[in-house]
Amino acid sequence: MKAIVQSAAKVGSRVRLGGHDILFDQPGTVPGGEDRGPSPFDVLVASIAACAHYFAAAYLYARGLPTAGLVVEAEADKQQLPAPRISRLALKVRVPPKLRPEHLVGIERAIRRCPAYGTLVHPPAIEIAIDERPDSVEERRSA
């Protein structure tokens, strides 16, 4: 998976993800924010919930059980120290009625297999490389 993120006015960004474009921004209460899209933080939380939903729905679908009525709600709290991050993430999973207890256990097991969940439980190594744009380097050489 590769995402290309470019500036889209003030502090907003446009993300190209495969054949999809997603617009991110900050609320109007944040300097430069125009609330033209969700914040990256909000999308991170929503992505975890959507991943959990997919794995729960796939579990149900594979067993011929109904997926209608399956809902995942996510609530997250931010914390600034020791670093800005999610300090608490709560997923509330509402399942279709009349599932047997073993299916409830199976749904939870399936959700724990979600890569977004696994990434939070076992964080990846993160590499950051700062690179000058090629045209900026050329402009300096000719100056």
What does this structure look like?
This protein is an alpha+beta fold and 143 residues long. The chain has two domains: 1-38; 39-123, 2-Layer Sandwich (GMP Synthetase, Chain A, domain 3), CATH 3.30.300. Helix content is 35%, strand content 24%. It has helices at 40-62, 101-111, 115-121, 134-142; strands at residues 3-7, 13-17, 20-24, 71-79, 85-94. The strands form two sheets. The protein has a three-stranded antiparallel beta sheet with strand order 1-2-3, with no helix packed on it. Strands 4-5 form a two-stranded antiparallel sheet. The mean pLDDT is 92.
State the domain count: 2
Mean pLDDT: 92
The CATH topology of the largest domain corresponds to GMP Synthetase, Chain A, domain 3
What share of residues are in beta strands?
Answer: 15-25%
Strand count? 5
Radius of gyration: 20 Å
The tally of helices reads 4
Summarize the amount of helix as a percent range. 25-40%
Structural class: alpha+beta
CATH architecture of the largest domain: 2-Layer Sandwich
- SSE string, helix = H, strand = E? EEEHEEHHH
Briefly summarize what is shown.
Helices cover 35% and strands 24% of the residues.
Q: Topology of this protein?
A:
Blueprint: E1 3-7, E2 13-17, E3 20-24, H1 40-62, E4 71-79, E5 85-94, H2 101-111, H3 115-121, H4 134-142
Antiparallel strand pairs: 1-2, 2-3, 4-5
Helix pairs in contact: 1-2
